[in-house]
Amino acid sequence: MAAVSISLILRRSLKETPVAETQEPIGYFTDTDHPVYLTSSETELSLRLESHAEDDLAWEVSCDLDNKVMIQNDEGSNGELVSVIKPGSAGYATISYTRSGEIAGVPYTSVSIDVDVIVSEDEEKLLTIQLSDIRQNVSDSGALDTDSPFILSGDRVILPKGGDWTLEPYDQENVPEGLYQIGHGVGDNGIPFYVVSMDTSVMVSDDGSISEKAMDSVLVLKSEQLGIEKKLKCRMDPTRSWVLYVVED
Which residues of 82-94 are buried (b: 16+ CB within 10 A; e: fewer)? Predict the structure, then answer.
């Protein structure tokens, strides 16, 4: 099995006014491995979820309030899932679509897509349904065909089997001192990890200008034994949490 990298970590929120009825599908996250296409009417939402990732994971569907909506799922080939959501009772509900598995015995979620819907009831007791928000959260992984794989989860690099992995700023001479805070620890499960945060204030000079070199800086995750080197970017997501993702050269 070849080494796999999903190549992107993101948490994207498309908060907006409720989506009106559509005849043509509206695409979300179309630049990722897991695009979603929505067709809607007043009485149902039809979502087509695709997966172009090189894995054998399956979509799992859950809802925080089952009585608010009725969901029918049809799984197709090549990682496709068609999910039809119909109103059940007035209120709000969140439907979650996830693809989860294990790497070296460590559970991880490859992708999670959360769909917020609003169910309304009019004076004649007729129910309608609208999309309120849709969010995607993708995790990255690599070196899966080796004895020392890694998983990127939020601000952490998880090393299920350990290894000689190191994590440090790339081209350190051009990285302001204190920009990255890199910690190393071992979880309650005995699995080692790196954790990263940033102090972006050091990117700003006395005259208020921002260092472009600091903005463009990356970290390098490296294993001498495996001969693997991955460049990682750290950024803050909409929830003000740090996330790491692989960047290609």
Answer: ebebebbeeeebb
Long-range contacts of 177-181 (CB under 8 A, 24+ apart): 177/202, 178/202, 179/203, 179/214, 179/217, 180/219, 180/234
Q: Give, rounded to a whole angstrom, the gap between the first and last alpha carbons of the chain.
A: 22
Decide: 161 and 148 in contact? Cβ < 8 Å: yes
Residue recorded with tokens 């197709």: 76
Confidence band for 194, pLDDT divided at 50, 70 and 90: very high
Sheet with 10-13, edge to edge strand ranges: 10-13, 127-138, 106-121, 91-103, 59-63
Q: With beta carbons less than 8 A apart as the criterion, state whether 106 and 191 touch.
A: yes
User: What is the amino acid identity at position 126?
Assistant: L
- What is the reported pTM? 0.75
pLDDT of residue 20: 52
Nearest-angstrom CA–CA distance, 70 and 248: 41
Q: What is the pLDDT of residues 99-153, one digit of tens each?
A: 999 998 888 899 999 999 999 999 999 999 999 999 998 888 889 889 999 999 8
The CB-based long-range contact list for 163-167 (8 Å cut-off, 24+ gap) reads 163/223, 163/225, 163/226, 164/223, 164/224, 164/225, 165/194, 165/221, 165/222, 165/223, 166/221, 166/222, 166/223, 167/194, 167/196, 167/219, 167/220, 167/221, 167/222, 167/232
- Which domains does the chain carry? 10-138 (no CATH), 143-247 (2.60.40)
CB neighbour list of residue 186: distance below 8 Å, 6 or more residues apart: 192, 193
